[in-house]
Amino acid sequence: MKRRSATLGLLLALCGLAMSGCGGPKLTPYDMKRAKEFMLSSLPPLLPDPSNRYGDDPRAAALGEKLFFDTGLSANSAVSCAICHQPDKAFQDGIPRAFGIDQTPRRTMPLAGAQWGDWYFWDGRKDSQWSQALEPMETPAEHGMTRDMVAREVVTRYRAEYEALFGPVPDTAGWPYFASPLLPGNPQQNWDTATPQVQDAINRVFANTGKAIAAFQRTLKPEESRVDRFFAARLAGQEPAEADRLTGDEIEGFKLFAGKARCDNCHSGPLFTDQFFHNTGVTLSDPEKPDYGRAFAVLFLKQDLFSCAGPYSDAQPLQCRELRFMSEDPAVFEGAFKTPGLRGVSRRAPYMHAGQIETLEEVVEHYVARPDPFATLPEVDGTVTPHGPHTEVPEISLTDEEKRQLVAFLKAL
């Protein structure tokens, strides 16, 4: 029996770890080495967030989960974080542009695995999950709250949980109503009437609200895919279970993904993203209001009160490495958006930062075509302005069969 098992293992190896027996596409040792790079088991340990000392506290995660699903943290009592980040849709919403109280300019990004990133939102204008969780709260098209409203709701309705984590609730008697430093008009005027001490108290509760939500989001882990299970079995010298087998097209699609099609230039690692920003020549979602992506975000980050280097961060200045060493030249990032991860991508149509492309087949066609993003915008004062630098997408040539195989692999994810 031992001799027969050894012979079977040798046959599998000699067959190049083929899809089925010695027939079908062969996976070379190089293919298997590349496959391991993309497996969920290769995801590095999650490091603590130095800017959020509560990030891995189960009590914070429990409070954060309540806040995440709480529609009371919205101006119309109908919007929560989960309205856009729906658990049954990979924590996104499946529509071209997110819709809270009103429509936003960009798609909802999925949350599972986001804790391994350094930048948040499509343009990376936030450098932590807790800071990212705050912005939608006082954005009119999303939750539509003001900063004092969020802080007051949290310390009133979650007082016990809040104090158990963050200490005594501040006195709210002198707090202004309908006040926010980011919203022009009455909210900003009301904010300016508050003393610096009151502003600090509101800001601190606001920041702690984000830190609790982030603690919950850090528990949302990516799911193992059929691709993970297939390659795990192969690497162990075993035959994958019937439900975990990859078809010939899916295997060839993987080879293209990590080879000729050069998808892994940006979609690398276990989360299928390099966590960086690229201009890929995607059509403008609104030519009248062009979205310049990362270009404006680098300016915003330096002034953000809730960044890693801000007064409400728990980090020491030297721990904010990404913020310290980021490029501050907006021209470098004009028209660039964050590389999205591809796990579960077939369930997340439409695609790109504003849902400009409807299907994976069209996404592949877009990258093969390499459209020039120097599409002209409407004239402003007689000047026609180009949008961003030339596309970063490398030149690739794929046959119709190869395109089909590449899509087959993407759907297997």
Q: In summary, what is this structure?
A:
The protein is mainly α and 413 residues long. It has helices at residues 2-14, 29-38, 58-68, 81-84, 129-134, 147-157, 159-166, 186-193, 196-217, 226-235, 248-257, 294-301, 321-325, 360-369, 400-412; strands spanning 277-278, 337-338. It is built from 15 helices and 2 strands.
**Second rung of CATH, namely the architecture of the largest domain:** Orthogonal Bundle
| Helical residues, percent | 25-40%
Annotation field: number of helices = 15
The fold-level CATH name of the largest domain is Cytochrome Bc1 Complex, Chain D, domain 2
The largest β sheet comes out as: 2 strands, antiparallel
Q: Calculate Rg over CA atoms.
A: 24 Å
What are the low-pLDDT stretches, counting only 5+ consecutive residues below 50? 1-22, 380-388
Q: Bin the strand percentage.
A: under 5%
SSE order: HHHHHHHHHHHEHHEHH
Order of adjacent strands in the largest pleated sheet: 1-2
Structurally, the number of domains stands at: 2
Number of strands: 2
Mean pLDDT: 90
Structural class: mainly alpha
What is the CATH class designation of the largest domain?
Mainly Alpha
| N-end to C-end Cα span | 37 Å
Q: What sort of overall outline do the alpha carbons produce when their principal axes are compared?
A: globular
